[in-house]
Amino acid sequence: MVNKKNTPITGITVSKNEDFSAWYTELVKKAELADIRYNVKGFVVYMPWATITIKKMYRKYEDLLDKNGHMPLVMPSVIPESNFNLEADHVKGFAPEVFWVSEAGSEGEKLAERLALRPTSETALYKMYSYWIRSYNDLPFKRYQSCQVWRYEGKMTRPFFRGREFHWIEAHNCFATEEEAINQVKEDMEMTYTMLQDEFCIPIIFFERPQWDKFSGAVSTYAADALMGSGKVLQLPSTHLLGQNFAIPFNVKYVDKDGEEKYCFQTCYGPAISRIYGAMIAYLGDDKGLILPFDLAPLQIVIIPILIKNKEEIVLNKCKKLFEDLKEKYLVKFDDSEDSPGSKFYKWELKGVPLRIEIGPRDIEKNQVVIIKRHDGKKLFIKENELEKNIDKIANNYTRELKEKELLDFEEQIEICYEKDSAKKAIENGKIVCCGFCSIDMKAYPCAEKIEKELGAFVRGKKVTDEKHEFSTCIGCGEPATCAVYIAKSY
Amino acid sequence: MVNKKNTPITGITVSKNEDFSAWYTELVKKAELADIRYNVKGFVVYMPWATITIKKMYRKYEDLLDKNGHMPLVMPSVIPESNFNLEADHVKGFAPEVFWVSEAGSEGEKLAERLALRPTSETALYKMYSYWIRSYNDLPFKRYQSCQVWRYEGKMTRPFFRGREFHWIEAHNCFATEEEAINQVKEDMEMTYTMLQDEFCIPIIFFERPQWDKFSGAVSTYAADALMGSGKVLQLPSTHLLGQNFAIPFNVKYVDKDGEEKYCFQTCYGPAISRIYGAMIAYLGDDKGLILPFDLAPLQIVIIPILIKNKEEIVLNKCKKLFEDLKEKYLVKFDDSEDSPGSKFYKWELKGVPLRIEIGPRDIEKNQVVIIKRHDGKKLFIKENELEKNIDKIANNYTRELKEKELLDFEEQIEICYEKDSAKKAIENGKIVCCGFCSIDMKAYPCAEKIEKELGAFVRGKKVTDEKHEFSTCIGCGEPATCAVYIAKSY
């Protein structure tokens, strides 16, 4: 082999299992996903390798929203303070997180009214809805926008997971009846499963959040928790039943068939694409670096020549021909740089390229190529004349394999607990606890506070579907239980 | 015909030729492209019909940038004041237009440092470039982002044309030599011709802007003026040769092959997609409403049944079948609403749907369908068994026809003038004036001011290519001319 001189070990030096946080930081840095050196706290740069995947994720999500009857629009990113203040619970929840634009121009002229950088767009959009929605003919009214939002977060920020600016889609829908609104919430949950589980290979489960943890201004919130392994969860998209809480102050009304003016029922849904990206790379990655679903990889196939003296040309030509054959259909790179093969392997594994094709003189003699799958490291020897057919099959199966490998069995992570001490132990052992609770209404908040303090874990809420478990007493106060809840540590 | 009862005339009531401004306002409102009722001055909502087209324009532009070796990234949208102040001319030019974020949270806590909402991203990005670019191996370094920018505009705003928030792409490139930077400027101009003329059907011409009209901080600016007809122009994408003006204060350096540290040469390019959309609909539209290139239309084909009593079913079935045949390939709608055919014609002409297919009982008897092209109103009678082939041909030709019809002959709009009085008359007669000028350096600024005052028109600069005209004296001061310039009214 030639060119052994440039073989820097670029791999990750910390094990994911031993120190997730340090591993993630190295992954983000070494795979060149984000740069945290931007000189404003909580704001980071998304580098090309992450940006390309995030754009693909947006496209898939937008296509699904379009298919389900939503239409895209673009709202201003500033919200006048007077709009923002219209819904009392909402302003109470979001005011601490708002960045305010209060001056402009060279002299720092004060604006007549302060403008909030949107932390979310209900209070921008619903004032417009009061102009746009006139009659029952306009309903259902389903809109979304792809944009960024800003939140003056006090918590520790981490690239993609949590920052003061993040990139999301927000869908805002209006209906004539509460029933239709509830159906929309169900559709939102289905979309979430389709996108997060089937496309992005992140195992999730939906919980109805306790009242103390719902979206500010909502009637109720249904949130997907990603199962990150070891009993830890991460909140991903949530969908909110708003009832008429916003429709009344924002005057979102329609004239019904009977000629009467009625307030709409509303829902909103906010998949944070940048955060989902963070969850995906954190969940799927390993100690060699990124692992990505096939469709989402910026580069899907890399071809690496294995060069032996005096046989360079035949190998390079074979590689070039293969590159030409594949490039119409796949995102493919022929890496003919001067680095050593080993160094190239490291690099493209770190970057999460799904398939690596190696071609050396002996492979050419045997009329074969070698394909290595990134997600399981398996090596496949494929006859040259069967390559095209096989590549398509391997590509098509890649994401499905990844998903099947990675979808955690939720039940396996659960430990059923009847009292606090065993729950504490279960949490310490990396489990998600299922237990009885007095309720998920505000009156149960003291129990949740106690749990948080004593267990260092949070009440995630009631499972949305098929709750099989029943409990007689609340784990917090010992009073009769009205529901089963799940308690877990969270990122 | 049935259902004549709902036939509101939804068309535009003002003629574009008679009152462009009122016509544009009606177009934007009646075709539901933007809503100007958002309660912050200079900020508007982009409605779905415009948003869908703008997204398609972004995608085409991004694909071309990718093809030309740029990579996408995402920058924070706020810039710390200390970065912003690093390049003196830049800050002088942009400071009057900056919105400042200066407080956050419920109590309006003052931020340690004011944050500018980016008016453009040089001062955000180039600080990062100083980290990222190390050696000649990293060059050329070509990046872009798709984002919005904010400018505290004093001028009158108009939806899409000019607003305090607009949506653009900005590409920022670094090179080892000035020559490569100049070549990038040329590539940017070629991309602009490809996108604006070939894809968006807007006739443009590039001028090197006078020094008093260049981008703040640039060495020189090359800007596309859209030829809007009647001698008026509108500034569209511009590309800027930055030289080392930013590289020095931002420390954007590389180690060359000879081991020496050198400053990069930089360029930047900013196609404002929302503004280009405005120019496109303004330029292509007519008194019936929108006209759009085929690829950019949110809906490409609308099928309208012509119903006659007792023959409804056969017509509706035929339409439905056609809809099913076409929907895999095109964005098609079968409009079976209860409105009258005339009312449907109005509506979809207003919305700029490229092809309307009409099917009535007589067409079915003759085994034909009727296709009406929006851009020229031509009616085509197509045999049913030749429909598929013909639709493809008509669709493929639509944008080319539109372009050929709409590409103004620049030469025809020009009037050669040798002194101010004839130039004044030419401008009044809706011409673009070509004349001699002392130069386009700062020392010629008094001449330009005089022209602006006396002619109500602006020196757009020197034509970038093939200047055939020569002049002996400057139209402003009568001194010897060093170049030919073009003078025009602008939007």
Description:
2 copies of one chain form a homodimer. With 491 residues, chain A is α+β, with helices and mostly antiparallel strands. Chain A has 3 domains: 20-284, BirA Bifunctional Protein, domain 2 (2-Layer Sandwich), CATH 3.30.930.10; 294-398, Anticodon-binding domain (Rossmann fold, 3-Layer(aba) Sandwich), CATH 3.40.50; 411-490, C-terminal domain of ProRS (Translation Initiation Factor IF3, 2-Layer Sandwich), CATH 3.30.110. Chain A has helices at residues 20-30, 48-67, 81-84, 88-94, 122-132, 178-199, 247-250, 273-284, 312-326, 341-350, 361-365, 387-406, 410-413, 420-428, 445-455; strands spanning 34-35, 45-46, 71-72, 78-80, 99-104, 109-117, 141-150, 165-175, 204-208, 220-227, 232-243, 253-255, 261-263, 265-269, 301-305, 332-334, 355-359, 368-373, 379-383, 414-416, 432-437, 458-463, 483-490. In chain A, the strands form 5 sheets. In chain A, strands 9-10-11-23-22 form a 5-stranded mixed β-barrel. Chain A has a 5-stranded mixed β-sheet with strand order 16-15-17-18-19, with helices on both faces. A 3-stranded antiparallel β-sheet of chain A has the order 4-6-5. The first copy, chain A, is globular. Chain A starts with 19 loop residues before the first helix and ends with a strand. The model of chain A is unreliable at 1-8 (pLDDT under 50). At the A-B interface, strand 2, helix 2, strand 3, strand 5 and helix 5 of A face strand 2, helix 2, strand 3, strand 5 and helix 5 of B.
